[in-house]
């Protein structure tokens, strides 16, 4: 069985991520979308919440599993018996760091290959950071995140803004 992992922060999942998930899931028997936990970074959503939002957004893909991990990607891949890491490339600016990561991951786990999918031109501008900015200004998020999670993102932004307002 060919198993691939699509790792990221997914804080929150965007239509750019979903496009990669759809295309990658068509290439492998199973695609594991894995929220990689970086304990130093406080996100908009907790890792558990990101998993839940990803599950809602990918429910229609039969061969997609959503998980989270605080392991090294190379170790996680070995444990899950995955031989491929999928990465989306938006622009040349993504390239340098991603190639560096790919080389390190293969050093740590020689059976692990990284495959890059070029972002669909519709989504090259899109990142989770942009989504957060748009949500802050009350923009319609339908063009940026899966429809299943639009309300959750708006709601969380209102909560965060409310808290900031009280603290400030
Ligand atoms: P970000 O916070 O920048 O959106 P993530 O760490 O959540 O990034 O991204 C996980 C993976 O998805 C990375 O391989 C990243 O290059 C890719 N990715 C993110 N946004 C897009 C997009 N709009 N199109 C294609 N790939 C993307």
TrEMBL record:
Cofactor(s) it depends on: Mg(2+)
Binding-site residues, substrate: 9, 41, 73, 87
One Pfam family linked to the record: CTP_transf_like
Site positions for Transition state stabilizer: 17
Domain Cytidyltransferase-like stretches: 5-133
Main subcellular localisation: cytoplasm
Gene Ontology terms, MF aspect: ATP binding; pantetheine-phosphate adenylyltransferase activity
Reaction catalysed by this enzyme: (R)-4'-phosphopantetheine + ATP + H(+) = 3'-dephospho-CoA + diphosphate
Top enzyme class: transferase
Positions that bind ATP: 9-10, 17, 88-90, 98, 123-129
Gene Ontology terms describing biological process: coenzyme A biosynthetic process
Alphabetized UniProt keyword annotations: ATP-binding, Coenzyme A biosynthesis, Cytoplasm, Magnesium, Nucleotide-binding, Nucleotidyltransferase, Transferase
EC number: 2.7.7.3
Cellular component, GO, one term: cytoplasm
Biological pathway: Cofactor biosynthesis; coenzyme A biosynthesis; CoA from (R)-pantothenate: step 4/5
Cleaved signal peptide residues: none
Record's subunit section: Homohexamer.
Family named by the database record: Belongs to the bacterial CoaD family.
Name of the protein described by the UniProt record: Phosphopantetheine adenylyltransferase
């Amino acid at each position: 069985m060919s198993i691939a992992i699509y790792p990221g922060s997914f804080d929150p999942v965007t239509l750019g991520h979903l496009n990669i998930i759809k295309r990658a899931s068509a290439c492998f028997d199973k695609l594991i979308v894995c929220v990689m936990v970086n304990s130093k970074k406080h996100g908009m959503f907790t890792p558990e919440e990101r998993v839940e939002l990803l599950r809602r957004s990918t429910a229609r893909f039969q061969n997609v599993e959503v998980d989270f991990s605080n392991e090294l990607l190379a170790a996680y891949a070995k444990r899950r018996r995955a031989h491929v890491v999928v990465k989306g490339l938006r622009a040349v600016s993504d390239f340098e760091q991603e190639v560096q990561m790919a080389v390190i991951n293969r050093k740590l786990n020689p059976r692990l290959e990284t495959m890059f999918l070029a972002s669909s031109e519709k989504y090259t501008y899109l990142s989770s950071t942009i989504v957060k900015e748009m949500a802050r200004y009350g923009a319609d998020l339908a063009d940026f995140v899966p429809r299943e999670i639009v309300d959750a993102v708006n709601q969380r932004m209102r909560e965060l803004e409310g808290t900031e307002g009280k603290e400030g």
